[in-house]
Amino acid sequence: MATLDYELYEKKFKDVTLTHFVSGVSAILSFANSAVVFGDKELDEAECEKVKVDVNLAYDEMSRAEKEAKAMIDSMTNETLQLTKDFDKAQMDRKDLEENLWIKKDELITLESHRYQVNDQLQAARSTLRHMENSLSTAEARKGEKITGRDVGIGLMLLVPCVGIPMTIDYNKELNNTKRRVKTVEGELHRLRAVVKENEEEMSKCNKQIPAKSKETERLKESLSQKEREVEKMQRACGILADIKCKLKHCYNYLDSLHGAVEALYNSCSNVYNLDPIMPIIEETFKTLQQQNSHNELLAYDANVQKMIKELRVIQYRMNMK
């Protein structure tokens, strides 16, 4: 959004109004010079025409100035409405970004917590797996011992049947028990290896997701920071535009009031043959023109206007309209 500049708006306002305003004031001054000469006498045709030419010119120029000023004020009103609308949207966008950022932060915290949990489970599963592998090695060794013992018993059966047969039976029983334990341990090892693999895959998934989630969180932080700067800038712009519009609106109100006074004078001079009956209207026009203050300085404080206002005051004195 472009930076608002007081001087640019003031210059634009003066560019579209001041030329017409100065021309209108000049026409009023010309009319005043004629009025002080004509006094309260009946006007001849040439004098009536001179009055009408000055008043018509004053009315036309003040109408143009008022029209241009109103168009600019209306444009600024629309600009203010659009800026306010954009500001409201920016605030909503900032709120959405804040909410999304909190969501992403929460997701990141949850994901990191899950990774720690999975890591603990993985370490526990690996520890159990090592223990079971050791148990399997022990069971396999015992299985080998039982096979050897059974073979010794079979050999003794040939030499000492009364000793070899019971020995063989005992070792066979132990061998079968050992085989069952080996099979159980092997089954548990298979399950644990699957658990370890699953945990490793989940761990790998978390390790990939966390950097991506962190990057997304940082992106949202930057977007939020940028949006906050935009909102602050727009907030300042709203204030500046409101101040500029207020100042120019005062200028417009002055111009509008003067236009109304000149319009009343214009209507009164349409069939005028003597200025005395419309002196109150003439006086009101001069009075309105001289309502100078800091609010309408863009128009009334122009050097040419100030010079003509001084001349008008001299004429008023001569006309006893102090």
Write up this protein.
- With 322 residues, this protein is mainly α.
- It is 89% helix and 0% strand.
- The protein has six helices and no strands.
- The longest helix has 115 residues.
- The chain is rod-shaped, with a radius of gyration of 51 Å.
- It starts with 5 loop residues before the first helix and ends with a helix.
Count of beta strands = 0
Q: What is the ordering of alpha helices and beta strands?
A: HHHHHH
Specify the number of helices.
6
Radius of gyration using CA atoms only: 51 Å
The overall average pLDDT, rounded, is 82
Question: What's the SSE blueprint?
Answer:
Layout: H1 6-38, H2 45-159, H3 161-268, H4 279-289, H5 297-300, H6 303-318
Key phrases:
322 residues; 6 helices; mainly alpha
Summarize the structure.
The protein has helices at residues 6-38, 45-159, 161-268, 279-289, 297-300, 303-318. The protein is an all-alpha fold and 322 residues long. The radius of gyration is 51 Å and the shape is rod-shaped.
